[in-house]
């Protein structure tokens, strides 16, 4: 019995000695739990809204075309007696480039003029006789008709003579020629090509979804191989139909080519600018959160998150224009959109701005 009391006493003493350690351990654990349960600020990336010049544009390719181009050919057959067709030379509209032998036609015209002179004298005499009653109206009409026929024959010969001259139909540059002085040519003979390259045309196509956006006067920036500079053109004509096979809209633009650096047939890379906005507010598309009644973004103000309803405009591959809801200088969250709550504190890791792009 005495031994039992001794054992119980020892256990009580050990328990009293262990209580402070247990309380200390529990206190530390509680402190650690309390410290671990504290909410540290969420790290996010943000976009600083600044007004930018935004160009709503697309990229495509096209081909340069001469403003005017014609294959010079003769309307009649004959021998070349005069040749003013120098390769690479600039010519003016109406300038004679080739003269075909017309001696036979000139002789026919002279013969016709002699006949007309005789017929005119006869017609005058017949007219005087008609006034005096010496001949009938029918006889005079026959004489007058004969005169008119002769005049028509002379006009026909003159038209044939005009065809013996090949004139420049417009100002341009002569290409390579394939005939020489003294050559016999016909309507099928290849003579040369004449091109006007100032201004020069650019032909290209855009997807049909832009048919309602593109319009005459839109700017086109393009470049070609072999030229370091960019060139600018303006749309002047739009095909009034969609190509059914390619689902594209064909367009042409005009560009100045005073120095002659641009040549027809060249391949061109183009930027078609639909619209230029001076003070556009662009933010990453990922920042815009769709809702049932509209769209919203999260703004960072004084270190806390706020919710803001917005209206959007033009979209690009990665950015969207905000037309209502934000102002220059606002800070829009681009990450952590699912974790943040209105009023919560966040820590900014990275600040981005809009660097510009096409649609």
From TrEMBL:
Residues 103-160 form the Multidrug resistance protein MdtA-like alpha-helical hairpin domain. Residues 140-167 form a coiled coil. Residues 281-348 form the YknX-like C-terminal permuted SH3-like domain. Residues 69-188 form the Multidrug resistance protein MdtA-like barrel-sandwich hybrid domain. InterPro entries: Beta-barrel_RND_2, MacA_alpha-hairpin_sf, MdtA-like_BSH, MdtA-like_HH, RND_pump_MFP, YknX-like_C. Gene3D superfamilies: 2.40.30.170, 2.40.420.20, 2.40.50.100, 6.10.140.1990. Residues 202-272 form the CusB-like beta-barrel domain. Keywords: Coiled coil. It holds the Pfam family Beta-barrel_RND_2. Belongs to the membrane fusion protein (MFP) (TC 8.A.1) family. This is Efflux RND transporter periplasmic adaptor subunit. It comes from Gracilimonas halophila.
